[in-house]
Amino acid sequence: MERWFANRRKSKLFEMADRQMTLAIDTVIELQKSITAALKGNKQSAKSSFEKLSTIEHEIDELRRMIFEELTRGSLRSKDREDIMHLVKRLDQMADHVKDASRAVVLLLEVIVPKDMWKQFSETAKELVVCATTLRKAIEQLGVNPEKAMDLAKQIDQIEGKVDEHYLISKGMLLQYSKETDAATILILKDLIEEMEHVADACDDTADYVRILTVSRESP
User: Fold this and answer.
1) What's the pLDDT tens digit per position in 109-132?
2) What is the H or E stretch that residue 84 is in?
3) Contact, 27 vs 57, CB < 8 A?
4) Residue 2 to residues 9, 39, 83, 121, 216, Cα–Cα distance (Å)
């Protein structure tokens, strides 16, 4: 596993794993674009980002299956296979939560949502992009600079803490606007808030696994 991203081997497996990681980050970026478009009142752009995100998520699912198939007939050590599977599963889960959040965004385009809430969601989405891109850097450093990988993984803890703060603010705003917003809209807003929190949690969980890998690989 130490050679994953250090040597950039052109095998089918490592190319697919790298592609899956890149696409997982792309879903978070598209979610941010969708929310930003919604904030600006650009429904078509928001829907376009959702459609692109859905296409990306489908490719991620296909890559996951292909990676697992490749692992079953590959020559990697069992420990390395297990490590790849864990990372792939975690990134796939993160992308699933991103898609669920984006579905809520599309539904909310058809109702009145206070602009302050869209602004808050936009700020949360920005932190999610930082979280996801930092995670990619941490994974890339696994086979290059374990100490750097550990530092980046720790940074994700701090970013996730910022998302938690946005989560609490969003929940407070949900209460603030509850009297002037219908129950169905409140439920969808709640779903969006929860799913964005789940994205951050999934990112942080993956970072925790990166830390575990860093420590285990340094152990004699």
Assistant:
1) 999 999 999 999 999 999 999 999
2) helix 78-108
3) yes
4) 12, 43, 11, 38, 11
Structure tokens that stand for 166 in this block: 């946005």
219 C-beta neighbours (distance < 10 Å), count: 6
Superfamily of the domain at 4-218: Phosphate transport system protein phou homolog 2; domain 2 (1.20.58.220)
Hey, what are 98's tokens? 């991103």
Distance CA 41, CA 147 (A): 44
Residues 6+ apart with CB under 8 A from 103: 50
CA–CA separation, 121 and 220 (whole Å): 45
Q: Where does residue 102 rank: exposed (0-12), middle (13-18), buried (19+ CB within 10 A)?
A: buried
Q: Which of the 8 DSSP states describes residue 109? A: T
Averaged pLDDT for residues 82-95: 88
Q: What are the residue ranges spanned by the domains of the chain?
A: 4-218
Spatial CA neighbour of 83 closest among 213, 219, 220, 218? 213
With beta carbons less than 8 A apart as the criterion, state whether 212 and 176 touch: no
d(CA 159, CA 181): 31
A 10 A CB-CB count for 175 gives: 9
What is the per-residue pLDDT for 87? 87
